[in-house]
Amino acid sequence: MGRAFAYVILGGGVAAGYAALELVRHRNGVSPGELCIISDEAVAPYERPALSKGYLLPRGAARLPAFHTCVGANDELLTEQWYKEHGIELVLATRVISADLRRKTLLTDTGETISYKTLIVATGARALKLEEFGVGGSHAANVCYLRNLEDADKMVGVMRSCHGGSAVVIGGGYIGMECAAALVAHEIKVTMVFPGKHCMDRLFTPKIAEFYEKYYTAKGVAFIKGTAVTSLEVSDGKCNCMPQVTEAILRDGRRLPCDMVVVGIGARANTGLFDGQLATEKRGGIKVDARMRASDAAVYAVGDVAAFPVALFGGDLRRFEHVDCARRTARRAASAILQDPAASNGDNAKEEGFDYLPFFYSRVFALSWQFYGDNAAGDAVIHFGDFSPGPAAPRFGACWVGAGGRVGGVFLEGGTREQSESAASAVRRGATVAELAGELERRGLTFAVDP
Ligand code: FAD
Ligand code: NAD
Ligand code: ISD
């Protein structure tokens, strides 16, 4: 059996929702029956960031339908009903198991062949498993990953059963930091273990990390850095119980008894369906041009899975695992597919890349940070503001200095909307550090260069 569509979006996450809305809203639009979304998740696209924040709260937690896309961008809430009303075929709880780009067909795990004229690949990324690092135990009832709603439901259940107990968090990145905050809110004692010298080592400087580690320590979180969990002690699941982890064992032999484990050890782009069919980037994304078009002209890739040329970085190929990028690349591909002249990004789009300013953020406890630009820019980082752990509402930041003393990247903790706008604008226009300092000072953030 088979069905045919003009447009198929493969994947039903953030990028899928934003692409669908853009396709519907575009002045050339899509007609009912033309668009299909295939997702192995059981629900319509939603704002994934909610899973590690509002969803995990002990009280007043966020639940669907409140965080379907595109509410994260203060836009319309796309419920299943919305897809129905717009004649969009939402094929849920269905996994695509193979893709034949020559025939323009996708085969699903229900045995259906779905064909397309244009395919948007929005398969996102998957959480790396402990087993990929030689550690067993992911199957245990109290080991939690966090990528989708099912994972989040499991984590909520496990946290509720561990109130007053202890957790080991493996990994000191985004998932580790955000989940540790949620565990503290559930009154669970947390020990974080990761191999780096400090938390969030892909982005934070040691000085920024020191602030957050002190803040977490004051909340009762313990850090064990520069080492790894080499095995998990798993009970054998007697009496019809599921196996449970009882201890995490570190490389140096230390044993950490625990009631639950949360794992956040990185993600990999889901590109496997296209191995040998699409050009890929060496760090794992599907290579696309400034219009998000892949090496096969009928295929576009968006979100976590896409490595695209960034105009701001002279056309360097980059792949980001962040929601703002998913939203913008999705809209970009949708406009390009329907040939909106505005999507051409100017005459030099092909050469210079997509006009995109990288933006990352996180919210934990009462803290909230944003980052704009490139933290690989230049060598020098200037820290400013008050890094002492004392103030209830800390306000500080860091500026990565790029070529010619220009602002390459800016980090702000506790920044106001105006300060964030100054930061974003400084990176975008390549302002000097002095210009940024002046602007932030005028907007109430003292920019004192470190001694
Ligand atoms: P996804 O949203 O992951 O969607 C991919 C979809 O494709 C999923 O529905 C998946 O099930 C489906 N799929 C994959 N393969 C197949 C297949 N073969 N067949 C059918 N369906 C398939 N970013 C931020 O900037 N800020 C945050 O605060 C933030 N918080 C996050 C919190 C969590 C818990 C996680 C996991 C990520 C967070 N991110 C955050 C990252 C952000 O959510 C991702 O960058 C974004 O979701 C990427 O969108 P996407 O559509 O590319 O991928
Ligand atoms: P990450 O790359 O942010 O962090 C991985 C962490 O695991 C690092 O601290 C790393 O040192 C550590 N690590 C690597 N191998 C390890 C090992 N064998 N043992 C112990 N630690 C190990 O990845 P993540 O935190 O798992 O996040 C997964 C995805 O979710 C990413 O795409 C991320 O961007 C996304 N996410 C983003 C946000 C946000 O932007 N606020 C929030 C949550 C999740
Ligand atoms: O997607 C990301 C992310 O989370 C970062 O910290 O890109 C950056 C790079 O890893 C560093 O610029």
Question: How does this model look, in words?
Answer:
The protein is of the alpha/beta class and 451 residues long. The protein folds into three domains: 2-126 and 268-352, FAD/NAD(P)-binding domain (3-Layer(bba) Sandwich); 130-265, FAD/NAD(P)-binding domain; 366-442, 2-Layer Sandwich (Enolase-like, domain 1), CATH 3.30.390.30. Helices cover 22% and strands 27% of the residues. The protein has helices at residues 14-25, 80-85, 149-161, 174-185, 206-218, 323-337, 349-352, 417-429, 433-442, and strands at 2-10, 35-38, 89-91, 96-100, 105-108, 113-121, 125-127, 143-144, 166-170, 189-194, 222-225, 229-234, 245-250, 255-257, 260-263, 267-269, 286-287, 299-301, 306-310, 316-318, 359-364, 367-373, 381-385, 396-401, 407-413. Strands 1, 2, 3, 4, 5, 6 and 18 form a seven-stranded mixed β-sheet that branches. The chain has a five-stranded parallel β-sheet with strand order 8-15-9-10-11, covered by helices on one side. A hairpin with a 4-residue loop joins strand 13 and strand 14 (255-257). Helix 1 packs parallel to helix 6 (323-337) and helix 8 packs antiparallel against helix 9. The radius of gyration is 23 Å and the shape is globular. The mean pLDDT is 94. The structure holds flavin-adenine dinucleotide, nicotinamide-adenine-dinucleotide and isoascorbic acid. Residues 357-448 form the Monodehydroascorbate reductase 3-like C-terminal domain. Residues 6-329 form the FAD/NAD(P)-binding domain. This is monodehydroascorbate reductase (NADH).
